[in-house]
What does this fold into?
Amino acid sequence: MSYAMSLDARAERRDRLAAAVREAEYAKAQRGNFFVRNYALLSKWWFEANLNNVSLYIFSPSGGVRRNAKRLCEWIWFERIILGTIIANCATLALYKPLEGRDSSWNKGLESAEFAFTAIFTIEFFVNVVAKNFLFGPPESDVYLRGGWRILDFAVVVGGWISLIMLAAGRSGSGVTAVRGIRAIRPLRSIAGFPALRVFVSTTLSSMSMVFDVIIFLVVVVAIFGILGVQRFAGKLSNRCVSASTMDLVIDEADWPCSNSTLGRSCSSGQVCIATGIAGMESGFSTFNNIFGATFIIYRVFTLRGWTDLMYQIIDATGASVAAYIYFVLLIAIGAVFAQSFMLAVVTAKYKQAAVLDEQRALDDVKKDPQLAPIVKAQSLKRQATVRVTYGRRFKALFDKPIAYMHTTAWYQSPLTKLIKSKPFEWSITAAILINTLILAVQYRGMHGQIEIALMNLNIALLSVFVLELLLKVLALGILGYGSDRYNVFDAIIVSAGLIELSFQNSSLAVARAFRLLRVLRVSRLVSRSKSMRRLLDACMDGFGAILSFTGVLIIFVFVFTVLGMQLFGGTAEFYDVRPNFNTFGDSFMSVFEILTGSNWYKLMLIAMSGPSGAGAALFFITWSFLGSFILLNLVIGMLVDTFARSKKSQGAR
It folds into this structure.
């Protein structure tokens, strides 16, 4: 009791000392200038406001409403219901049909469902606010808006109600479309429902500090080259060939600048090159007349898409081939090659650093509490024991004797083990796999019947060799020893598929064709024959969990931009009869995936910019292109590098 009282007395003294220090600092700030005084006043007000632990100034911590709200938030089925609602909302977002218009019965039904989802998310929001506090609260309390995921939830709820209110008021246009686009970020909330994805994203975001330094470097590069481009090429891209007699623009020459210089592009006979009202190339969006057009061109060069066409068009317009060569080569070297490599190095290094910090925190926790590791291990063993007790007793009498028999060693296993591990045997199986690969490769449409029969017989003979190899390995290693190697299991699956395919050889069923396609998997057996390739695959399997988490995050981001693309560009005139487009979920998904791979992404952007959105449409494409190509895909490389380094370290330790 006395010890507890001494702790309380110490805490009280610390609080009094901290209050005295704050008052002294506030009194000192009152003698400062206007900004210092008001900043100190604001800090004092913020500190005093956060001393209040009454949620919304209504619900006290000991009140029944707040305690029940906390119980509801901690109830596991509450989280599961919200996660199920998010998944259902994602389905309704994907089912939207832009081509049918917003007034169609289908889309109106989805709007009604949207109202229900918004109501559910609003209820969840109020329950969390009552349980935790909204904006103010003591430092040790779990205030709602102090969590990044909850800020996202709050933005989703507010955006949902704004869009519903605007639609109910009969508003339409680009403003409503932009607000409706906020709905597309709702799938990001599903990340918070999966601990593996949440930890991955949180670790990634915490390791992105140096990425912003690279972004600042890129902004400086863009500014420098943009100013140089405007100074050197401004107004030069508006020259076009017109008819010498009527001075009308030649339609075929609308996208091709010309020059009166002998080194530039000359007009045909009966045409002259004059300055027109066209701002630049590609409907005037690719231009050096201002810094914004130059930024668009420079970012395209950074992505290495279509930059050669731009360079030659500038040469056609100016005749300054040397200046254009130097400008674009430097832009490629500094911006595209160096900056992208810099981004890759930073993402890889920071990801590895974050992984090392996570390991160090785990080790520190074990050092602080040495009993932590044995407890965790005991819990794991307890779970395993529970499984064994639950199912082992039921089948104990049935499986004990067969398993004991499988562990016995027969007289023939030792010589057979020497046989299957001998070099001649391994080389013979490798040669059979190579011959089988060659048989698969030489097949072609319209083969002569005798050749097809000969290849089929060879396939049966090679399948017999693989079956013999399987039997010898099972006899030599035993069923348990054979199944302990995952590569042996993979080989057994391929051999079994070959036997099934042989039994359906004369059948026209779809399942028979499917098993015939599995022949190609025999080629992958070459991987298991090489020790270096096996180590490579083992390293990949070691990082499979992280890669799986990243894949989940990538799919969610692709889904978000797919839905956002449908909301912004689906059913618009510029995308009505072109491919790729955003008119359906499947088409929008492939368009977003195409932008992720960098394949002609700027052409999609130019089509969108030709519509009512104008240059503002570029924000969608540039944001996704940078986020996907420069950051997310580089994270894959960072994960693989870290995985291989850990695998090599563990192999060296063994």
